[in-house]
Task: structure prediction
Amino acid sequence: MIKNGATFLFNTKVVDFNIKNNKIISLLLKKVNINNSEIEEMKSDFVILAIGHSSRDTFEKLYTKNFVIKPKNFSVGVRIEHLQSWINEAQYGKNPNLKLPPAEYKLAYHSNTGRSCYTFCMCPGGVVIASSSEKNTIVTNGMSNFSRNNINSNSAVLVNVTPEDFNSDSPLGGMYFQKNLEEKAFSLGGNNYNAPVQRFEDFIKNQKSEFIGLVKPSYLPNITLSNLNEILPDFISDTLKEGILYFGQKLKNFSHPDSILTGLETRSSSPIQILRNEQLFSNIQGVYPCGEGAGYAGGIMSAAVDGIKCAISILETI
Result:
């Protein structure tokens, strides 16, 4: 890319947008991690906003610059951990004759209330990881190393939320809904970046966990035994309970009493969509909202495809 003329501005943050006659004319940039408050201007007729689903300060800046933004559905829940050996046996049976990779799963449940519960981003032989992007919040995610040889498996177990759940008239209401839950998780964990965790049996009984059973939490830096019901809205915790019990009927040991729930997983997808037209630019001409953060993708591959579509649209314009 550099050989073909691309320039990468590392440690550089977009802090504002210059707009004239409803068209982008430049970006204002600031170096980060440098004791210098100087603002630089970069002129451009085209800007691709591939900002990711956690760019909250940018979302707020776009809102103040009168970009048309609407709230969108996303999902909230927990990370669930099992012994990988349980998942292998449930999927392959005992002592399979073939040498098979660590088993995976993908499960979904639809409640009579209209809510859905589903597993997402399953990590065989993986770990639960800290993914906070702001101070005094807890956000979880999951990952597997290439070898997928850790003792546990994990996945997100999520419940859909809609703009009606946000109790806000702001198009950024979903973002504030997420942040509120993340701050509650931080507090429940002890205000020290420990994640709150709970055995599934205790979650069902709505009681704080007092011990760890067969499944040892993998989250670092540390965990705090808690009652996740205290911070989750009732519709989320109730649907999680129904869903995990249902998944236990489909996959042996999924609803094992010692299964570990780690809270919270809130960043399943962007809480907003920055509206764009058929040419893929927003109500501000020349600005192309792109990928997952802008509300047009739901994962790595679809975000990459959306980036290609935006690039083609610009090439067809110039």
User: Anything to note?
Assistant: Helices lie at 56-64, 84-92, 173-188, 200-205, 234-250, 300-317. DSSP finds six helices and 16 strands in the chain.
